Amino acid sequence: MLTRLKAPREGKLAKQICKVVLDHFEKQYSKELGDAWDTVRDILTSPSCWQYAVLLNRFNYPFELEKDLHLKGYHKLFQGSLPYYPKSMKCYLSKTPDRMTSERYQIGNLKRYYLLNAASLLPVLALEVQDGEKVLDLCAAPGGKSVALLQCAYPGYLHCNEYDSLRLRWLKQTLESFIPQPLINTIKVSELDGRDMGESQPESFDKVLVDAPCSNDRSWLFSSDSQKAACMISQRRNLPVLQIELLRSAIKALRPGGLLVYSTCTLSKAENQDVISEILNSHSNIMPVDIKGITRTCSQDFTFAPTGQECGLLVIPDKGKAWGPMYVAKLKKSWSMGK
Ligand SMILES: C[S@@+](CC[C@H](N)C(=O)[O-])C[C@H]1O[C@@H](n2cnc3c(N)ncnc32)[C@H](O)[C@@H]1O
């Protein structure tokens, strides 16, 4: 059953909430998030409150736009608050749900900015990519995090992988729209099952990002087909299996001493904390990396829910901070031998 939303976005048809999904979330998240769920639900079900951050493209730098953003009251995200925050990465946000129009790509003219959920920069920043490193983006389409990663550093080798062929086209388009051709020529794009990459490229990468397929709470809530949505609810319990397999493969692809970041855009504990606990319990060569510092330094811009983990954080949508859901966990492969 679909319920019409109260506040349609100007000039657009109102998105419709899928009641089957909302009821399912209500049951699960009121347990997992406690009192915080009421606010999270209000934000998730009100697209008119959603915020969009503006990530400037360092490869076609929009000086005039940056001035305009200041005049419109936008402020720079994470200014000086994080231990790793490359100067080349510039992301602006407004306290109000102002949404800039998306740019059209014209051949020969790179886009100047990317609109995104600001919380999706956290996994990229947690990866702390340095110039020259070998980096794998295991589940890369549509390419937002690959683009963000290239705002931070010039990896010596960047491998962007995506299993779904339609989404792979989208990934290629994103890269072409934001990244200059000479740099694109150094990026490897592949259409592989991420679960196989560890076997085929063992210990090859300094950093691996696993931005995993997940329940994607925001878009799922607005499924237009309630039968399909009901089917997705029953398939949802299989996602952790896929997520763990992707992580196992990522761990194999990582060199000893390398860093791995796992992220999802769901609030689900089964797809977040439980997946990471399973990995830590089953891999003696994987250690948690403490990222609690991020929750302390970024609390002005983001609201976090407790995860019970030092290596994992969860951004939950809040009033005036309508970012997330985004779970981020950081792991390190030890130098010693292990499973
Ligand atoms: C959350 S999305 C990634 C978003 C992307 N990182 C970004 O920031 O734009 C997860 C992606 O994983 C892909 N995927 C699903 N199963 C996969 C697999 N076995 N191997 C690699 N990618 C897979 C999905 O098609 C989807 O595009």
From TrEMBL:
It is found in: Mitochondrion. Residues 44-334 form the SAM-dependent MTase RsmB/NOP-type domain. CDD domains: AdoMet_MTases. GO terms for cellular component: mitochondrial large ribosomal subunit. The active site is at C265 (nucleophile). InterPro entries: MeTrfase_RsmB-F_NOP2_cat, MeTrfase_RsmB-F_NOP2_dom, RCMT, SAM-dependent_MTases_sf. It comes from the Eukaryota. PROSITE patterns: SAM_MT_RSMB_NOP. Its main location: mitochondrion. GO terms for biological process: regulation of mitochondrial translation; rRNA methylation; tRNA wobble base cytosine methylation. Keywords: Methyltransferase, Mitochondrion, RNA-binding, S-adenosyl-L-methionine, Transferase. S-adenosyl-L-methionine binds at C139, A140, A141, P142, G143, G144, K145, E162, D193, D211. GO terms for molecular function: RNA binding; tRNA (cytidine-5-)-methyltransferase activity. Belongs to the class I-like SAM-binding methyltransferase superfamily. RsmB/NOP family. This is NOP2/Sun RNA methyltransferase 3. It comes from Oryctolagus cuniculus.
